[in-house]
Design brief:
about 230 residues; alpha+beta; Muramoyl-pentapeptide Carboxypeptidase, domain 2; 2 domains; 4-stranded antiparallel beta sheet; 3-stranded antiparallel beta sheet; globular
């Protein structure tokens, strides 16, 4: 009888030990499943962008794009966009109500004008340096008629990174998107845009898109899936 009791007790202990290992195996499987599910979800959330080239002009998701890699035709000459100009005037007026004194420094530039400017900069600073702050002919946003350079009435920080520390520069950074604009070449993104930080350079996208780009914290290249 005592032998039978020992045998039964040993069998119960063996069963308990085997059962104690089971939760560990289930836990590992669950973690693997979670990782696989997360990877699948990330792939499903990848945005698909639509690219269209019409008359030599590139649009991605309906947004005209020009940068270091994508050019505009030499003959493209739309002049200043009236819609963009209207919203720029609203932006300047709103700033004036806040005691700010914006001054428009540059707007539409033709291919020929950009050629002249770029060549001047190359002569002065060399091509490598000029390429960090000036677009080559056909690659300037100003040729789209949708880009504007703003300064202030003092003018001491115009076309300089220090413009971001002026009252006008600080206001633009926080409110430009409310009028359909983005800071096209943001701080710390030179490796993506190819240009130095330009807190004065605005690009019109329209309010809905500008707000999305602003909230994303991305450059236009990143937002459109180019980088």
């Amino acid at each position: 009888m005592r032998k039978l009791f020992v045998i039964l007790l040993s069998a119960m202990l063996l069963t308990a030990c085997q059962e104690s290992k089971t939760p560990v195996e289930i836990k590992d499987t669950t973690q693997n499943n979670k990782k696989e599910t997360l990877q699948v979800k990330e792939k499903q959330e990848a945005t698909i962008h639509h690219k269209e080239i019409k008359d030599g002009i590139t649009y991605i998701d309906g947004i005209l794009i020009v940068n270091k890699d994508i050019a505009l035709p030499k003959t493209y000459h739309p002049d200043v966009s009236q819609v963009a100009n209207q919203h720029l005037n609203e932006l300047i007026a709103a700033g004036h109500e806040e005691g700010l004194n914006f001054v428009l420094r540059s707007a539409f530039r033709s291919y020929e004008t950009q050629t002249s400017l770029y060549n001047q900069y190359v002569t002065r600073d060399g091509q490598e340096k000029a390429d960090t702050y000036s677009a080559r002919p056909g690659h300037s946003e100003h040729q789209t008629g949708l880009a504007f350079d703003l300064g202030n009435i003092e003018g001491t920080d115009d076309f300089m990174e220090s413009f971001e520390d002026t009252k006008e520069g600080e206001w633009l950074k926080s409110h430009a998107h409310e009028y359909g604009f983005i800071i096209r070449y943001p701080k710390g993104k030179t490796d993506i845009t190819g240009y130095q930080y330009e807190p004065w350079h605005l690009r019109y996208l329209g309010k809905p898109t500008a707000e999305k780009v602003y909230e994303s914290g991305l450059t236009l290249e990143e937002y459109l899936g180019l980088k």
